[in-house]
């Protein structure tokens, strides 16, 4: 089968031919119908040698139809369209029992890794899923339109749901970075909160997209942003700031714009850190670094998409075009999310 692999540290991903995998006991094989690209892939490809075993088939956003079942598998049917919940855990601890496998404390020690982030990923013609519990029925959702919701929808949803107490009617939410996750985050905020949504980005095209998907205000993420947000909020600041970049300049904007007793959610993996305490962040403000989301939250995200409340802006690529899609992602020229269709 064809697959997109990261094979050599420092090199671009390659399209290669590898054997088609067979499902073992308890496993499910999917014929992949869509796979999303993510900046987390670029983060993986920036790491030094030895962090991940190479070659690694990329792609932690996956959708497909059930193609083959290993011994003992139940609960899914051949031909069923599904999305993949990627944050695989041990399945037995307290976190996993409540569906929060994204916070499983044992996964790393047991050698359990998400597809595309350690285990073979979805950027291939076939994908092995370790357990049927990690499959969510797609129903009538288009896999190409919906696949990115497994991360680009689930991750902002998880961050926003955990901040709902700060976002009643009359509150303000700031979204920094209107990329693959940020433009979905804006829609989720509009769908499930009463907040006024202020979007920040350096790109005029991204700010145009922010307005199109529901931002009340769209401002340049520059030295004027802090004063503008303070003015919009009567000097109070934003009750919640969602930084989908995570770079030093954006974290500084978050620090200076969050209100007292507000919350900063650092979603992006731009590599910066934010000191917090009495002489850094406002009194009562919390700083959180959320990771992915829960299985039940993925079901809720897909339900929001099914209702028409949210969607992902998608650019479609063939599997041979995947390296070019990664280049476009690195350059920041994608509108929304890149999706590869094998």
Describe the 3D structure:
This protein is an alpha/beta fold and 342 residues long. The chain folds into two domains: 2-150 and 293-341, Quinone Oxidoreductase, Chain A, domain 1; 154-288, NAD(P)-binding Rossmann-like Domain (Rossmann fold, 3-Layer(aba) Sandwich), CATH 3.40.50.720. It contains ten helices and 16 strands. It has helices at 39-44, 94-97, 143-146, 154-161, 182-192, 204-212, 225-232, 248-257, 295-307, 322-331, and strands at residues 2-6, 14-17, 28-36, 56-57, 61-69, 81-84, 126-129, 135-137, 172-176, 196-201, 217-220, 238-243, 258-266, 286-288, 314-318, 337-341. The strands form three sheets. Strands 3, 5, 6, 7, 8, 15 and 16 form a seven-stranded mixed β-sheet that branches. Helix 7 (225-232) runs parallel beside helix 8. The longest helix is centred in the C-terminal third of the chain and has 13 residues, at 295-307.
Rg, alpha carbons: 20 Å
**Number of self-contained structural domains:** 2
What is the CATH topology of the largest domain?
Quinone Oxidoreductase, Chain A, domain 1
- The helix/strand order is EEEHEEEHEEHHEHEHEHEHEEHEHE
Question: Short description, anyone?
Answer:
The chain has 342 residues and is an alpha/beta fold.
Sequence-ordered SSE layout with sheet pairings:
Elements: E1 2-6, E2 14-17, E3 28-36, H1 39-44, E4 56-57, E5 61-69, E6 81-84, H2 94-97, E7 126-129, E8 135-137, H3 143-146, H4 154-161, E9 172-176, H5 182-192, E10 196-201, H6 204-212, E11 217-220, H7 225-232, E12 238-243, H8 248-257, E13 258-266, E14 286-288, H9 295-307, E15 314-318, H10 322-331, E16 337-341
Parallel strand pairs: 9-10, 9-12, 10-11, 12-13, 13-14, 15-16
Antiparallel strand pairs: 1-2, 1-4, 3-5, 3-7, 3-16, 5-6, 6-8
């Amino acid at each position: 089968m064809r697959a997109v692999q990261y094979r050599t540290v420092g090199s671009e991903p390659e399209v290669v031919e590898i054997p088609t995998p067979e499902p073992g006991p308890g496993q499910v094989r999917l014929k992949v119908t869509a796979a999303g690209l993510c900046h987390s892939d670029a983060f993986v490809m920036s790491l030094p040698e030895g962090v991940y075993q190479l070659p690694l088939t990329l792609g932690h956003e996956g959708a497909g139809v059930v193609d083959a079942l290993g011994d003992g598998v139940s609960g899914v049917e051949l031909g069923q369209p599904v999305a993949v919940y990627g944050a695989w855990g041990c399945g037995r601890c307290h976190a996993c029992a409540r569906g929060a496998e994204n916070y499983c404390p044992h996964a790393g020690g047991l050698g359990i890794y998400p597809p595309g982030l350690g285990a073979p990923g979805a950027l291939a013609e076939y994908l092995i899923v370790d357990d049927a519990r990690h499959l969510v029925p797609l129903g009538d959702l288009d896999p190409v339109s919906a696949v990115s919701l497994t991360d680009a929808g689930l991750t902002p949803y998880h961050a926003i749901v955990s901040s709902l107490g700060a976002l009643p009617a009359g509150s303000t939410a700031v979204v920094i970075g209107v990329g693959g996750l940020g433009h979905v985050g804006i829609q989720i905020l509009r769908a499930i909160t009463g907040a006024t949504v202020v979007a920040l980005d350096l790109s005029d095209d991204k700010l145009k997209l922010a307005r199109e998907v529901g931002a009340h205000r769209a401002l340049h993420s520059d030295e004027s942003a802090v004063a503008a947000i303070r003015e919009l909020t009567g000097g109070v600041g934003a009750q919640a700031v969602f930084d989908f970049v995570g770079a030093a300049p954006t974290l500084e904007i978050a620090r200076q714009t969050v209100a007292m007793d507000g919350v900063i959610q650092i979603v992006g993996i731009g590599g910066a850190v934010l000191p917090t305490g009495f002489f850094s962040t406002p009194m009562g403000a919390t700083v959180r670094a959320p990771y992915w989301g829960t299985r039940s939250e993925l079901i809720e995200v897909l339900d929001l998409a099914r209702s028409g409340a949210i969607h992902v802006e998608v650019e479609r690529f063939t599997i041979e075009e995947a390296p070019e899609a990664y280049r476009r992602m690195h350059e920041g020229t994608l509108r929304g999310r890149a999706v590869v269709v094998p």
